[in-house]
Each structure stands twice: as structure tokens, then as C-alpha cells.
Write a structure and sequence with these properties.
single chain, alpha+beta, five-stranded mixed β-barrel, 8 helices, globular
């Protein structure tokens, strides 16, 4: 399932890039200008751009590249998953409460710091970092057609500060962003733009304790 979701996101990205290169390049420029105006996009920045582009870069009618891709797929399991992921994608800050076994899967037990809602999330971006339990992580999760939640951000931000500090910092980033700015952009700008949290925020896959 995780590989199929990865394939869906990769295919959606390629189709949007190749099908409308002008829109794609405009999106690259807009994102780079917002999150890393002096250094440009590379490495983690390109991965966070792909996440924002697929889920948050909406056209005037509200369609995103991922929702447009999903709508164009033939009926079947791949379309069902693509539609479900496009509709349920949630970028948020979570308390990483524990690593747990759920049936045959290992999941990260997360709690959204804004709503308190609990999620059991599959994905090595989180389950591969058991030392992150007890801290705040930020990234995107989405639900597939079978109802299971998955980590779909290429990277998750983790604040190495004590939990109460991490909760306060994440809430501050969420609440102080300019109106209309997606949370994904606010966190990328903090990390890639050299904000004051650069020393405490770390990214799964880039560095693991």
C-alpha cells in the first residue's frame, strides 16, 4: 500500500509538471520566493515543494494538481486511493505519542496539537524514528481508500526541544503565519529560510537521533 501511494504521488507530480510546464515553473518560483528567497531550492526544499505543489497549490477553482490527477484516472483502486488521499491530506503538527503495533503494521500514534484528534499513521518517515516519541512532529498525513492513515510528506519536521516547548513553538508558527499561507509553507520557510528555529528543527530522513 505504501509503495502504491508513493507511485500515485510521483505520477501525479510528473503529469502536472509535464502537462503544464508554465504553471509548474510559476509554482517553483512562487514557492522558492516564499521559503528560501536567498538560497533557492535544493535537497529538502525540493521535496517540501513537491508536497506543497501536489496538495496546496490550488487553481482558481480550488483544484490541486493531485485532485486533478485523481479525477482523470480510470475507475479502480488507484483512483479510489488518489481521490481519498487528495481529499484527506492534512498538514499539521502532532505530538508523537508512541510507536505501536496495529495488526500486521507498525504505526506512529499521533495527536494533532490543534484539535486533539488521534491518528494511527503508517510510514517509515515516522515509524523509522522511534526516538521521536514524546516530541512534536510536523508534516502531512492522508487516508487511503481503505481508511488507513499514511505519512505522505517526503519529510517530517521534528522539534528536539522538550514537548511543552515544541507544542508552543508549533502553535506559534501556525498562528503567526500570514493569512492564506498554508502551514506547509510556514514550516518550510522556518527551516529553509534560516529562521530562529533552524537549530532545533530536524527532518526525518535527513537526520535521525
Amino acid at each position: 500500500m505504501l509503495q502504491s501511494l508513493c507511485d500515485i504521488l510521483n505520477d501525479a507530480f510528473r503529469e502536472a509538471r509535464d502537462g503544464s510546464p508554465e504553471r509548474f515553473l510559476e509554482a517553483v518560483d512562487a514557492y522558492a520566493g516564499a521559503v528560501a528567497p536567498t538560497v533557492g531550492l535544493a535537497g529538502v526544499g525540493l521535496a517540501t515543494f513537491a508536497d506543497w505543489f501536489l496538495f496546496d497549490c490550488a487553481s482558481r477553482d480550488g483544484a490541486t494538481p493531485l485532485s486533478e490527477y485523481a479525477a482523470g484516472l480510470p475507475a479502480g483502486p488507484a483512483r479510489d486511493d488518489a481521490v481519498a488521499v487528495a481529499e484527506s491530506g492534512l498538514f499539521a503538527s502532532f505530538v508523537y505519542e508512541a510507536l505501536e503495533a496495529e495488526g500486521d503494521a507498525t504505526v506512529a500514534a499521533l495527536a494533532d496539537i490543534a484539535t486533539g484528534r488521534a491518528y494511527a499513521v503508517e510510514g517509515s518517515q515516522l515509524t523509522g524514528c522511534p526516538g521521536w516519541a514524546g516530541s512534536v512532529v510536523t508534516g502531512r498525513i492522508a487516508r487511503a481508500a481503505d481508511g488507513a492513515w499514511h505519512a505522505v510528506s517526503p519529510f517530517f519536521y521534528r522539534d528536539r526541544a522538550p514537548l511543552e516547548v515544541g507544542v508552543r513553538v508549533a502553535a506559534g508558527i501556525r498562528d503567526s503565519r500570514p493569512a492564506g499561507t498554508p502551514l506547509s509553507v510556514a514550516f518550510a520557510a522556518e527551516m529553509l529560510g534560516g529562521g530562529p528555529l533552524t537549530d532545533s528543527l530536524r527532518v526525518s530522513g535527513a537526520e535521525r537521533p
